Amino acid sequence: MKKDMEFHYKIGEHLRAERKRSGYTQFELAEDAGISINALGHYERGEKSMTINNLNLILNVLGLPLSEFFENCGY
């Protein structure tokens, strides 16, 4: 269980960094990706796991391929 939490935290931390690097606020990114701002906040804090579909929606807005996101995240 602890490994899952560490994984979610690391993914969330990287997602937050990519969002900020791209100049999006949480509100803007959530709106453009079609997800709730609450969900995005939970993902960025590593509090909840996200579906691959939601991750793809977010990464499409950021213009990042899934493989590049994970390579830069250390996975």
Question: How would you characterize the overall build of this protein?
Answer:
This protein is mostly helical. The protein has helices at about 1-20, 25-35, 35-45, 50-60, 65-75. The longest helix has 20 residues, at about 1-20.
Task: Please supply descriptive tags for the structure shown above.
75 residues; mainly alpha
Give the strand content.
under 5%
CATH superfamily annotation: lambda repressor-like DNA-binding domains
Shape: globular
The CATH class turns out to be Mainly Alpha
User: How far apart, in Å, are the first and last alpha carbons?
Assistant: 18 Å
Report Rg: 11 Å
According to DSSP, the number of beta strands is: 0
- Provide the CATH architecture: Orthogonal Bundle
Residues in helix, %: over 70%
- The fold-level CATH name is 434 Repressor (Amino-terminal Domain)
Separate helix tally: 5
Structural class: mainly alpha
Write the layout of secondary structure elements.
Layout (H helix, E strand, L loop, with lengths): L1 H20 L4 H8 L3 H9 L6 H11 L3 H8 L2
Helix pairs in contact: 1-3, 1-5, 2-3, 2-4
Tell me briefly what this model is.
This protein has 5 helices and no strands. It has helices at residues 2-21, 26-33, 37-45, 52-62, 66-73.
